[in-house]
Amino acid sequence: MRPILRGTALSLAWILASLAAAFGPEDALRYKDPRADLAKAQFDAAQQALQLAQGGFGAKALPTLALGQSPDAVFLESNPTSGYGLRLELGWTLNPGSVGQLARDLEDRRQSYLNLLRESTRLALQAHTRVWQQQLFLREAEARLGVARARLAAVRERREENQATALDLQRAELGVESAQLGVESARSALAAAQRDAARYGLRGNAEGRTVRFATPDVSPRTTTRYLNELATLTQIQIEARGANFSWLPGFRAGVGMTTARDSFGIGGSVSFNEGVFSVGTSLDLRSPSTDENAIDAPSWGFVLEAEIDLDALFFNTAYGANARLQSQNLVLQTLEAEIAADLRARRERLALLERRLTLGERAIVLEQQYLAQSKALYDRGDLTDEEYFDRIANVRDEIELSFTWGEYIDAVSEYLEITGLPWALRR
């Protein structure tokens, strides 16, 4: 009877032996999403934009070339004209609103980058888990096929001795066909899981082993959600401050001077409007004017402008901004306690899952000893084919451990998403 089942036994032995060179959770943890470099570049660009805005300095160079014609009043004809020049501008601007918005953009880019890293690692770990589970399901399916074949062989022997009916034989044959279909389905599912894992650089079989990830205790004020709401509060504060002073008139003062025949000019300006303060200076270098009527003496000028927002002067236009500010302050006051309770509950769940993992790891050690003992009894002839493969088909400790491992990965992922921390092994 045993030669009939030799193929199944060899297949099971191959599955168990192949795990020696399998990939584990650490390999999944090392996966790097190909989009990470682009996300990092976007974060670096946002950081540079914020630094430039905080410095407030700006510079421009404006070269010009002019071609045209001018009428000659004496000879009633047109004379060609041309000119060229270079304008240099240097300024400094203090714009809290722009800086606040860029700071918010930078935080959004940072979180997008870290979210991408966390999510890609979670997907790689889940891919490892699926391959591990499908390997166990294939082991179980092949063991059930071994049981079905053993039962069919026993029914055939009893049929030869007229101790089994034709119906018994048909049912046993159907059981083998059903078990064979189960094996083919399990192999197909394993191949699909391995193809998915290959997307993350994980090839071959999965090692049935678990690790523990770092999930440190953090302050609610450092969590992603709190930082988001704090950035919103900062932005609202800037808007409210601008609205409260919107009744103040904006002004601009400028002074300029040009040399003889407009070949050289210099100017400067100071302005304040809606909370934005700026200082600027300019330098113009131009080709001398060929106009015979051009003034040879230098000239200068001064201008002072004011802008008054009458709506802000006579009506309380800052009411809406102040209301949003009060509302956001209330949100932050209650949010810290809410996040602290959430973190505490999630740490408790993680602790329970880690205890389940520890118990599961102890259970599969005993399970492996049980399987080794069963194999020894089977080789000595103390177990029938049906008894041996029935034992293999009914061991469930490693399968349960793999599902607990999947729950643990999801729980860690949720905790890291809240805290904003990256995946890392516990040291």
From TrEMBL:
The keyword Signal applies. Residues 1-20 form the signal peptide. Keywords: Signal. SUPFAM superfamilies: Outer membrane efflux proteins (OEP). This is TolC family protein. It comes from Calidithermus terrae.
